[in-house]
């Protein structure tokens, strides 16, 4: 009776070892397949979802900053055009005519 217990104990240890070895082989195989898939996708130029989302959020923030800059530029252009419209135009034309008249006097 004791020999059968010992035999069952040995079989149980053997099965337990085989199961742990199979579990280790399973994780190793999963890692290998994952590495191969990632390598294939990288060679094709595809990116992971996490990388895509990160770049997308960066692009979205850059676009928002660009919109703010456009608004600021519009505001500055309006301010500049209002200042230039308030200046008198005859002073600018007088300066040009004096330059032209001084050139004609030299000839």
Description:
The protein has 107 residues and is mainly alpha-helical. It is 91% helix and 0% strand. It has 3 helices and no strands. The longest helix has 42 residues, at 2-43. Mean pLDDT is 82; it is low at 97-102.
Q: Total strand count, please?
A: 0
Topology pattern, helix = H, strand = E: HHH
Computed over alpha carbons, the radius of gyration is: 40 Å
* Number of continuous helical runs: 3
Shape: rod-shaped
- In helices, the fraction of residues equals over 70%
Contiguous uncertain segments of 5+ residues: 97-102
Main beta sheet? none
Quickly list its features.
mainly alpha
Short description:
The protein contains 3 helices and no strands. With 107 residues, the chain is mainly alpha-helical. The chain starts with a helix and ends with a helix.
Layout: helices, strands, pairs:
Blueprint lengths: L1 H42 L5 H38 L3 H17 L1
